[in-house]
Write a structure and sequence with these properties.
Length: 60
């Protein structure tokens, strides 16, 4: 198997066994940003829902 079969570009030396091309890094950064945003929305929705239920119930 040559380097092309492993996904490495000819003339580009992989570092730590990974192809650190800018498009791969950009894709990983985008995926992480999306995951963090989704997690933040879930947490805010959960806290907001609990806050609304507690407020509606009132002190007892």
């Amino acid at each position: 198997m040559g380097d092309a079969a492993l996904g490495h570009r000819p003339g580009v030396e992989p570092q730590d066994g990974f192809d650190n091309s800018s498009d791969v890094i950009r894709q990983q950064h985008w995926a992480r940003a999306v995951a963090e945003a989704m997690l933040a929305v879930v947490i805010m929705a959960k806290l907001g829902l609990e806050g609304c239920l507690n407020f509606r119930r009132g002190p007892q």
